[in-house]
Amino acid sequence: MTTEHEMAIAIATEIGKQVPVKQTYEDAASPAMRQVGATFEDVVKCVRLVGFPIQWLAVQQDRFRSFIERAKEPIPEERRVLPVPQLLGPILEGIRYEVDETPISELFQNLLSSSMDRDKVNLVHPAFPALIRNLSSDEARILKHLVDEPITGLHLDSRSYPGHTHRTDLPDTVERWGESELYFEHLESLSLVQTVFSRDIDTFKFHPDGELVPFTICITLLGRRLMMACQPST
């Protein structure tokens, strides 16, 4: 019967295949490499600590293999390093609940890729997997849009409708437009976006129930760093 340790070794071995063998078993133990990557033993311990049931691991092994393969594929072999446990564990846990080919699985895949890329690992923060797990697919699409340009809208300043967003120019990729206010409030709570209201009274517009105040939604430094870490490696 396959033990948890054996399954952990199998998955860690699959990850280990994606970096040069010499680096995995020799260079990875050096102080310089320890700053950007992990050892094979670190990865085994990490997979075990995640605590996946053995049955689930067995079923998902092919999916892990495909996920890891896609993550490492764009990285030149000489730049590949083993991902540190603080990133690998939460990423594996995250894809456990996510189907393939969604905006969220794409973020996880690219984040794993960055964590295995010697030239990009400095962009990755241990908080990023948790932030991705807290996003909806639409919120991921909004963040991707905000990297290139802000989103504008009109806020209805009225006693009858306090805090009501009258209109927001969402990107066409968003599927549930009616949830826009919830999306932006949630993204702000994660410190990934910020809303800036116009202070110029000349830009206010008349509405039967009050004034329409223009606002702009911008990505924050944290949001931009997250999206930079989740860009495909080249």
Itemize the secondary structure elements and their pairings.
Elements (H helix, E strand, L loop, with lengths): L3 H13 L4 H5 L5 H4 L5 H11 L3 H19 L12 H12 L6 H13 L12 H6 L3 H12 L2 E7 L6 E5 L11 H10 L3 E5 L7 E3 L2 E10 L1 H9 L5
Antiparallel strand pairs: 1-2, 1-5, 3-5, 4-5
Provide a short characterization of the protein structure.
With 234 residues, the protein is of the alpha+beta class. The chain contains 11 helices and 5 strands.
Describe the structure.
- The chain has eleven helices and five strands.
- The protein has 234 residues and is of the alpha+beta class.
- Strands 1, 2, 3, 4 and 5 form a five-stranded antiparallel β-sheet that branches.
- Helix 1 crosses helix 4, helix 1 packs parallel to helix 5 and helix 4 runs parallel beside helix 6.
Task: Please state the structural category.
Answer: alpha+beta
Q: Strand-and-helix sequence, N→C?
A: HHHHHHHHHEEHEEEH
Number of helices: 11
Q: N-to-C terminal Cα separation, in Å? A: 41 Å
Based on CA atoms alone, the radius of gyration comes out at 22 Å
Fraction of helical residues: 40-55%
* Number of beta-strand segments: 5
Number of domain modules: 2
Model regions low in confidence, pLDDT < 50 over at least 5 residues: 21-36, 49-56
Determine the mean pLDDT: 75
Largest sheet: 5 strands, antiparallel
- Provide the β-strand percentage band: 5-15%
Q: Quick one: overall form? A: elongated
Protein name: DUF4393 domain-containing protein
InterPro entries: Abi_alpha
